Amino acid sequence: MKCQRSFVTANQSGFTLLELLLVLAILGLITGAVFSQMGVAQQRMSAESVKLDDFQEARDFVDQFFRDINEIGYPNTRMADTSSALWSPVLTTQNTKLWASPYINDNRFAMGLVKIDVNTIQFEADTNGDGNVQSVIYIINGSGTCALCLQRSQVSKVSGDPILGQTPNWGTEVNDVISNPIFKFFQADGTQVTVLPVDYTTQAGAQTLANIKTIQISLTIRNNKVIDQRTGLAIETNLAGEVSLNNCSMAAIGQPMSC
Fold first, then answer.
1. Is the bond preceding 162 in cis, omega lying within 30 degrees of 0?
2. For the segment 213-242, what is each residue's pLDDT rounded down to a tens digit?
3. What DSSP designation does 242 have?
4. Do residues 240 and 219 touch, judged by C-beta distance below 8 A?
5. Taking Cα atoms as reference points, which of 129, 126, 137 lies closest to residue 73?
6. pTM for this entry
7. Three-class SS state of 240
8. Cβ contacts of 249 within 8 Å, gap of 6 or more
9. Cα(177)–Cα(141) distance, integer angstroms
10. Gap between the Cα atoms of 33 and 84, Å rounded
11. Average pLDDT, the chain
């Protein structure tokens, strides 16, 4: 007796080569899009990191400026008896700028504002809080080697001319500064000082310095090495601030001190 087995073969079908190529093409497009978005995200993260670093650098610099300027004009002749003969060494006096205090050249007194301009401010203050007077300058390219650097100099005041008698020592700086003006100055009545530069070497200039009440600072930093992917432009960071002075100025005799 023979047993017969019946085999039923089902129709079997697979992907054709064209279908496989189509699937691979679609996967390639999806993968490319994913990696492209990842690249854009990384570039944005890098740009935002640079922007944050620039902002922090600018904020630290402006904070330093505010700390310095808050001590402007201290100590001054209102805090000492200049008629006393007990000074040792004797007080240094000047008699060429008759509109100013005779003691502006003495290194134990801070004159206050010395010179102002759109991108420059020079003043004297006890910035260290130790009773010693410092000559402080904020200026673009003070060292002469960095055209877009806002630099700061602080040196112990030397008895002598507040401008010509002091030798700057350039230190901290903010790079890639394109803002102009950086500083704006306003008198006690709110009037902006628009005719600059001004310094103590003329009577009109000295009176202007003694009347300054408010200083505004504005920094715009542009980093041309990093492009913002959203705008296609170089990264820019902006920071602005304002400070009201206790302007203890010795630049003009008879000028009431606000401190």
1. no
2. 999 999 999 888 777 766 778 888 888 999
3. E
4. yes
5. 126
6. 0.81
7. strand
8. 73, 111, 112, 113, 209, 210, 212, 255, 257
9. 10
10. 82
11. 87
